[in-house]
TrEMBL record:
This is SEC14 homolog 3. InterPro entries: CRAL-TRIO_dom (IPR001251), CRAL-TRIO_dom_sf (IPR036865), CRAL/TRIO_N_dom (IPR011074), CRAL/TRIO_N_dom_sf (IPR036273), PI_Transfer_CRAL-TRIO (IPR052578). Its main location: other. It catalyses: a 1,2-diacyl-sn-glycero-3-phospho-(1D-myo-inositol)(in) = a 1,2-diacyl-sn-glycero-3-phospho-(1D-myo-inositol)(out). It holds the Pfam family CRAL_TRIO. GO terms for biological process: response to xenobiotic stimulus. It is found in: Microsome. GO terms for molecular function: phosphatidylinositol transfer activity; sterol binding. Residues 144-292 form the CRAL-TRIO domain. One of its GO terms (cellular component) is cell periphery. Keywords: Endoplasmic reticulum, Microsome.
Amino acid sequence: MFGFGKKKEEKKTEKKSFLKVDTPFEKPVDGVKPPKEKHLTSEQDEKYQIVLKHFQNPELKVANRENDDCETGPLIDDEKAWVTRECILRYLRATKWDVKHAISRIEGTIAWRREFGINFQNDDKNVVNSHLIEPESLTGKEVVLGFDNEARPCLYLKPGRQNTKTSHRQVQHLVYFLEKCINFMPSGQDSLALLIDFKQHPEISANVETSKIPPISVGREVLHILQTHYPERLGKALLTNIPFLGRAFLKLIYPFIDPLTREKLVFDATFSEFVHPEQLDKEFDGLVDFVYQHEIYFPALVEITKARQAAYMDRFYKFGAVVGLSEIDLRGDADEVTVPVGKHPYNANTDSVTPITQSINKLEI
């Protein structure tokens, strides 16, 4: 009906030299770089400047809960570091450049992040942290490993390795790993690749009295989070080994998936077409011999991402601690800002940006 779940042809196995890997890759394969960002039109830049000015307002206060604006608070530094140039552009693109809607969506996500417990750049301060979700990670059902051919970090979801009963903590676990995957993004890349393998592992979860396919309510909650609070973060989603129940579940949630996201879904995917073999698990025809060992992989993931979060905030303070800094600079290693606040990364040293005062007169929030 939707073109997923077709049986793949068996490939002949070839003798290969595999690389033993126990921890996450920290950068893409040499030569793999993010594609350059498209230039903004003058109208798009005008709208960007208005949203930027709104969040630069020192008097701005945002709700502390997603659906309750009775209690509000000013942006903390961690939230200012989250409202980057690229963040604003992601929400503008997601709202088809509707300024009011983009502002509302960004404020809604800030409120959700506060309520959900991930509003700090330092995980030790967050409610959703490594200690909370570690029981969900014991079998490696979610893993950040490698980068695709456009330097997107790859997040693997492996439902067949499910080890717990359905609960809100499973949703927290997914969000935690989304955040970790974002920590791995190199300078110039702001989207990730989602690789979903439905292969069953009954020996792992034989004692778990639950279906490997989540309830529709959980599926809809996850979709709401992904589409509402992580817009434009999904660069590609590859799905493989889809069982009958998996196809049934996908058909049930498919109507709730927005059209732009559907375009990024590739069913019965051959992962090796999208990920360099040197960073792809041999299970998917790559050259990486990766066996999940929780006591090795998980501490390494936590250590690497904490270091990256700390470096991100160090650079945020170094470059002025203001809203609108570029992720190119916050994730980069240059000593000076390469994308001044309010400028485009590929014309940052020019004065071709439309004056903000003209933009504000033209468009009202």
